[in-house]
Design a protein that fits this description.
Elements lengths: L8 H13 L16 H13 L3 E5 L2 H11 L7 E5 L5 H8 L3 E5 L9 H7 L4 E4 L11 H11 L2 E5 L7 E2 L2 E2 L6 E5 L12 E5 L2 H10 L27 H32 L6 E2 L6 E2 L4 E5 L3 H13 L5 E2 L13 H4 L9 H6 L9 H7 L2 E5 L6 H16 L3
Parallel strand pairs: 2-3, 2-4, 4-5, 5-8
Antiparallel strand pairs: 1-9, 6-7, 6-11, 8-9, 10-12, 12-14, 13-14
Helix pairs in contact: 1-8, 2-8, 3-4, 3-7, 8-13
The chain binds pyridoxal-5'-phosphate.
The site of pyridoxal-5'-phosphate (PLP) has 13 residues, from α3.
Amino acid sequence: MPGFELFGESEKSQVQDVLDSGVLMRYGFDGMRNNHWKALELEEALTKRMNTKYAQLVSSGTAALTVALASAGIGAGDEVIMPTFTFVASFESILAIGAIPILVDVDETLTLNPAAVENAITDKTKVVMPVHMCGSMADLKALKAICDKYNLLLLEDACQAIGGSFEGKPLGSYGDLGCFSFDYVKTITCGEGGAIITNNEEYKTNADHYSDHGHDHVGDNRGAERHPFLGYNFRISELHAAVGCAQIERLDDFLTIQKKNYTVLRNALSPLSNITFRKVPNGGVENYSFLSFFLPTQEIAKKAHTALGDAGVDACFYWFDNNWHYYKEWEHLTSKKSLGKLPQEVVDQLPDYAKSDFSKSDAWIGRTVSCLIKLSWTEEQVAERAAKMKEVLAKFS
Ligand SMILES: *Cc1c(COP(=O)(O)O)cnc(C)c1O
């Protein structure tokens, strides 16, 4: 997955371009900047590649989720449905605006189970936030039907699946809003950065203002700009955007490499009767950043993961007891451990997750092993890896 593996001349010359102009900020300094607008350029490249009307760059994927929610008017006490298997950024972005993260089970897609989503809807629900984990996607068609039925927003977290698609649409563009992360370990990176894509002009305008202290960006005198509503600073810098300008040009090449490496590994494991692969919903095309598969039981999966590591197959993950990605280790959320007082809505409405039953998620995640697909592997390394994985996993029937 990590685009940093293949940094080259284009990244260097883009960054040098910004340093030569001397303007590291995305707004203002029109006279000084010699027509360098890297953030704007990257936003345009994103709208083209993702086939949406608008894109808004921000400082991180977490910021993108926060700004996306804020731009759609989500606030204190609103409930946002999110999966038990994701990254901590999901609930962080929801809590940041005083909204309530409602955890819901995942299924064999390793993403939101649509039936569980429908069960979790209350009169406070405003958003369904599927997270396209490990390169593949939620059943967006089913989720969209639910959102339409209950008049909810569909916000796609596509931070780990950029370049994948569903029913021919790039992931992130199917829902009302989509978010990407360009942090250091994502498929394409800015070092730090994130983006929101949407076809909704009002959300774009709100995201543009909100991510820059509420500035209305009218005219060419920053000091004179008005602030129609409260905002915050989630800006990306020109230096970061410049790296992204180089990387987005390479996205499709990266996807081709990922698909090639993924396919070699998958074909090697396919004959094993003890391995089944993560389900990709009908109409979905992965971005191939991970190969995820199920072993027969939780106990076997844990042992198989350890054995892969012992055999030198690195970068494989057993998510079930992972600190960052699975609800079981989110003790800080469960115990509401915050530095200061939480908004009263959160105190009152956050479910007691210590008592929740997510055994349906456990049944899938407990059996899952995911292996990262790297860009820098040579053909020999992939072949060797495939053979080793097959040999190790064959012992765990
Ligand atoms: C990386 C990631 C984020 C957050 O991105 P940052 O840029 O690191 O803040 C959000 N969601 C998912 C699924 C991610 O993998």
